[in-house]
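Appendix B, record 7
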Amino acid sequence: MNHGFTQMNLHLITANCYPHNLRSQRVLEKNGFIYEGLLHQAELIYNGQIYDHLCYYLENPSLSNKDNIL
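Structure tokens (predicted):
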């Protein structure tokens, strides 16, 4: 994430995971990601099953001032 913010000058990093994957949720939260919401029917896999995604984001700490937003 440091590379994304310092080298690539990203403003925001996003991540998605499955609602049933509690370990992934914990990893994201431990790394400072903020839960944004549930994306319903986000993925259709090869066998026809449809899965929701949990959406998380992490803002660039050096751009946390809202005046710096585009």
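Remarks on this record: DSSP finds two helices and three strands in the chain. The first helix runs from residue 2 to 6.
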